[in-house]
Write a sequence for this structure.
């Protein structure tokens, strides 16, 4: 087999394998941390920056720019007389899973060992499972490509 063909084979097998391993690994890591966060203390927080789960990027961008928080979802909470602010949604989440209005009260999970660490979403959810499924699919494709080259 010549060098060019070996390189193409390496790319065709290596890229989906690496992508699959990355997705499975990050899914396991985020799922573990998210499951751990579900055992944290649950408290009420107040939304400071609105989020609209709109149907398009344009509608979300338009709403966020008028949210009063500079266009960023955030919430504040108080523990032991100290106020904290966070925009962290959850381990493995790219954004809130529903719409939130400024001033709305929400339930969050706060790390009992570090009150500055809070999470809006906790537990194993769809994003963790989706990335796990796609990671396994990429690994399967890599092995099928490898078998086709033999």
């Amino acid at each position: 087999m010549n060098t060019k063909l070996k390189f193409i084979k390496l790319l065709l097998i290596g890229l989906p394998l690496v992508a699959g391993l990355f997705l499975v690994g990050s899914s396991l890591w985020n799922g573990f941390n998210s499951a751990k966060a579900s055992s944290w203390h649950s408290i009420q927080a107040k939304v400071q920056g609105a989020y609209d789960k709109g149907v398009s990027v344009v509608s979300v961008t338009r709403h966020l720019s008028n949210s009063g928080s500079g266009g960023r979802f955030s919430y504040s909470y108080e523990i032991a007389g100290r106020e904290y602010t966070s925009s962290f949604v959850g381990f493995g989440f790219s954004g809130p899973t529903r719409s939130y209005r400024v001033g709305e009260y929400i339930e969050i999970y706060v790390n009992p060992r570090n009150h500055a660490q809070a999470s809006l979403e906790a537990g194993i959810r769809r994003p963790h499972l989706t990335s796990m499924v796609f990671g396994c699919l990429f690994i399967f494709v890599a092995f099928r490509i490898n078998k086709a080259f033999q």
